Amino acid sequence: MTDKNRLNRRQLLKFTGAGLAAGALSSGVASAASTERYGIQFERVVDAVDDLGMDPNGNRAIDGALERTMRQGDTLVEFPPGEYRIRDEIRVGGPENWGMRGLGDDPEDVRFVSNSREGLQAINTWNGNGVLVENVALDYSQRRRGKLGLRIVVYDNLRVQDVHFIGFNPTESNGAVVTLSPVVLDPDGEGIVDGVERTGGTEIKPHRSKTNDPNAPGIIWAGARHRGRLYVRNSRFENAGENGIYASAPSGDVRIEDCTFVNNNQAAVRIGGDGSYVKDSEFIVDSDAADRVNSTPLINPNMIVWETDQRGESGGSVEGCTFTYDSVPKPVTALWVDGSAGSMTVRDCQFEMNADGVRPIRVDDPVRQARLGRTAERPWGVTIENVTITGDSSGSPAVELFRRPDSTVRDSCIQMTGGRDGVSVSDSSGCEVVNTNINVDGRPTVTNNATLSTSKLRFDGSCPLSGATSADDSADDSSDGSDDSDDANDGSDDSDDSSGGSDDSASDGVRKLVVHGAGDGRYDYRIRYEGTASTDERGDSAKNGIIEGELYRWNTDTFELEGEVVEIVELTDGATVTLDGERIDDS
Length: 587
Description:
Blueprint lengths: L2 H14 L18 E3 L2 E3 L1 E4 L9 E5 L1 H10 L2 E5 L2 E4 L4 E4 L2 E7 L7 E4 L6 E20 L8 E19 L13 E5 L5 E5 L2 E2 L21 E2 L7 E5 L2 E3 L6 E2 L6 E5 L2 E3 L3 E6 L5 E3 L2 E5 H4 L10 E6 L10 E3 L2 E6 L5 E5 L7 E3 L2 E4 L5 E5 L19 E3 L2 E5 L6 E4 L5 E3 L2 E5 L5 E4 L4 E10 L4 E4 L3 E7 L12 H4 L11 H4 L21 E6 L5 E12 L7 E3 L2 E7 L3 E16 L4 E4 L2 E2 L4
Parallel strand pairs: 3-5, 4-6, 5-8, 6-9, 7-10, 8-10, 9-10, 10-11, 11-12, 11-13, 11-14, 13-16, 14-17, 15-18, 16-19, 17-20, 18-21, 19-22, 20-23, 21-24, 22-25, 23-26, 24-27, 25-28, 26-29, 27-30, 28-31, 29-32, 30-33, 31-34, 32-35, 33-36, 34-37, 35-37, 36-38, 37-39
Antiparallel strand pairs: 1-2, 40-44, 40-45, 41-43, 41-44, 42-43, 45-46
């Protein structure tokens, strides 16, 4: 035990008095021998009913008896199946090696209830060491006012295992509280939240900046005091009014694994920074289905908002996750990297976008778009690898990068209908798209004041239903001319908006030539080529060595070319021509 923990223990003994010395829970109480659960050592185990006289029928409050065990510490309280009433918030500072555990076959066999209509943290501890809450349910389902939560702040050894929160989740004026606030104070300390469920309906409100009666700020809230490592795993969170897990402010790590998030408003997860991650988790939004559960509709159900508040920190990753949108009330984002976050990695993820307006991946400008904190420190580049983005929907490009130099998209697959572009890069240098299939109705790649090199691209492949395409699958025709320039072969393809040009060393494979409109108006084009080319599906002509036609607004005309582009004879200002995703300079 550290000196800090010894001090806490002495303070507790002084406060509680000699009557609560070791073994003196109450006169005549027999307790079982010591035990260990999840690395927390308890000197005694007591039965809530037989040893402590708690009422399992919910008629008499258990506050006093439970508080005494917390103040003494070194005690695991076991609850037989039943209903236990908590009258007021049980507040104890500095508990050591204390826990409560339900003995039922299911967490909901042991339920804690309350008469409070104003909402309360059933257990509220701070500056403790070794706290366990296991296999119980907090049930506030009797009415739509009031809420039961847990606030557990320790230096080390926090465990919340198999805990269910049951009931409708109200606004703050009707008793909303944070469902679970787990905080680890010691930078070397650890906390684990495992098997937690909160799925009840909610009265969805706008962001607290726009209403006088907001929702609680998160189902799980890890505030700025958290400095250790917190794991949240094997848990399910649904219908948050204001964030599922809100964990962007703390300097400590937050690591989310194997969780499910369904129809959460504002964001399912807000997180970011070195040492933090989201892995192997599922994100689902179907606002039509949510309307049948919540009393008011979803407003802005983003999935992951990657941010670092005032830390401006780089690092961290999103890995092995699936993101599915089936219906939404307005444009939102599956994975939004704010400008307050620097470099990070997205790996082995699948995005299924079947709702118009949803942005799959958006990575914001650290200088102009640090909306949720201060500008991130360099490096700013992001890595997107082995990612699949599919769906039938209109809206923004599948991947958007704003002022993110040295970013990479590789070994990935984008297959979308609905007129979307593939990868859009703005105000960035040194970016690359490598070994990737981009099969979209719009432009495969788009640049704005940016340099983007491409190699081993494919434009007609399909993406697997789950998991990203392999390098071999995504570019199995790269050797047949998808982009086989000398530069690409040696890994240094530096083509971009300004320096494009025809690919003199292209091989004899079928290539994709696309003419892109740029806004309102009509765009005429006439392009000279060598080899053979197919007529565009709109009927625009490709014969006798000339591709020519017209298009309007943001539309595109696409041709299959076996050969080379010789010259752009005519092209209305603003329109662009790309060959296998690389822009051809009209000079």
